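Purpose: get a first structural picture of the assembly so the mutagenesis plan has something to point at.
Setup: two entries, given in the order below. No constraints added.
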Amino acid sequence: MRIGAVTFPGTLDDSDTIRAITASGAEAVALWHGDADLKGVDAVVLPGGFSYGDYLRAGAIARFAPVMGKVVDAARGGLPVLGICNGFQVLCEAGLLPGALLRNAGLHFVCRDQWLKVENAGTAWTSRYDAGAEIIIPIKNMDGRFAAPKSVVDELEGEGRVVFRYAGLNPNGSTDDIAGISDPTGRIVGLMPHPEHAIDALTGPSDDGLGMFLSVLDSVVAA
Amino acid sequence: MARVVVDVMPKPEILDPQGQAVARALPRLGFDGVSDVRQGKHFELEVDDSVDDETLARIAEGFLSNPVVEDFVVRRVQA
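Result (structure tokens, whole complex):
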């Protein structure tokens, strides 16, 4: 099992993502923004950070990196893709997920451990969780407020594509407390909080994040 | 060569906390009478005459703005 982690200029969390993939038992494959192929990986993670300095808009320039053309094609063909934080923003800018991530309503960079409710345990990245489970993983961003036209939000809610919702305090004014969403197939998931920072209670608030990296292994085996 | 201006603004229904923060600061600075502020982006492009309006619209819609949450206006300001 080979899971890729993409590094753009300005990506910060590729090391922890590779550590999380390795902890799940898979082989982590480093992918570079300039790569023209995905090295035969079974799934891809777009880690967090500030790709291209967040210039223009978060994720707006990373979307045009050579590797993203391959990620978009493969994702449309069914490859599981997880976008974390800046990776979520990249997936929205690339059109693989709907909506956009805007400046936090409180205008503060929010960095804390965040409780989330797993709303959909049927996606490729959440099958190891119980539906309705509450998990605690870190959140750290400036632009985490999910926004989309009402028709899109209604569609996400109606189809069970809100995968994670903030439990307790909404940290950024996100519509409907949305923390993460999926595409219609459940194979492409994006979320603002950071599961890769919570894979071991020694170095994070919990090991609740590891379930996402384990879930995708199940989905690849089942595919 | 021509100068083209592209103004990008958050859609009216999108919360603009940065604009609100500016609006709230004005009375504290002694400026009264400003009831609302919306903050956007202003781009100035120097373009060859061969670049047509359709291309400019594609640049504005596909890159300079995110049509999900932003509106844009393209203007040629210098012939």
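DSSP finds five helices and eleven strands in chain A.
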